[in-house]
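Sorry, any thoughts here?
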Amino acid sequence: MNIFNILAFLFTTAVAFSYINYRYIKLQNSIAITLMTACITLLIVILHGFGLNLGEEHIAQALEKINFHSLLMNGMLSFLLFAGALNFNIDQLLSEKWEIVALALCGTVISTGIVGVMTFYFLMLVHHPLELTYCLMFGALISPTDPIAVLAIFKKLKAPVSLETRLAGESLFNDGVGIVLFVTIYAITYEHHAATIAAVSLLFLQQAIGGILYGVALGYLGYRLIKPLDDSLMEILITLAIATGGYAVAQIIDISGPLAMVVAGIFLGNRKKMFYMTEKSRQHLIHFWEVIDHAFNAILFLLIGLELITIQRSMLDLVCGVGAIVIVLIARCFSVTLPLCFLSRKQSMNYRIMIWGGLRGGLAIALALTLPSGVAKTLIVPMTYAVVLFSILVQGLSISRLLRHNWE
């Protein structure tokens, strides 16, 4: 099976699951896809235990042909982040700017540190020690949130706009910050960059500040190119060029492409900046990127379930997975309450919702899969899966009850 057939199978299956959910199950799409793939995975594992083979080896062989580092870091990530940023309301963002900055920057750094240190000592406790840099890498990849499921529920229950803005804005930017942290620690661990405070700070600033400035430049270039046009097809093609060519150039000049896509998407999606487009053209552009976002997210969430079939399962994985879930929830509590307690006077229920609504998604899985083979990957990947599955299936399915308790 070649790579095209594999991707075609993933896309078709994701669409089929989305259709079944739309017609019959009626859950938020990412939750439904994860739930269905998890059920299929569990069935395959149970039947395998009874000696029945339902193609587990073929699935593993097919997934091994996918270069997850290339697929995510050099492909899907640019589209996902640009699409998410394009739909973001800049006025709402500015109204909660300090809270979003605190959560995305300070909160992500706090979460990375807490998860890394607690994981380091936890793995020593279960007699499977891992170097601190690898534990911090786990902290960096698991800290970014993915509130797709929660935001859909927010809209349905008409939650306060300020809370929705915080959760969406935090996710939008902490994806970029988390990836910058991950890339920085990855460079120190695997590429043997200097681990001094000065060197680490310089590498982080190069990625972060460079990515933001480059994103502004990309957004302005796109604005100038689109302004004189009255052709929705050409406007879509220009945004595609920004999300592909712009991201590729960011990698060449060694700055953060993810942060650049977030900033460029917000710049072009800003309603005040889109006055030059007709309403029809604007709707075409938004709908096109919504399709891209939905399709890629469906494939990522499907991969979460399929990849569970390929990993080695043991009691150690179960213990480490449960431990990772507890550690990430503790880190989430501190990473939300510490930054916000100095800035916000909102009611405390908002903190509970922010903590429980911090779901993890496909980004964490994909980053974990980019790690080189070795002891670190064999421990980090199962822990990441456990956190993501708990996040989507337990937190995602229960958040509506918490919301109703507060607003209905």
About this structure: The CA atoms of residues 337 and 348 lie 10 Å apart. The chain has one domain: 3-407.
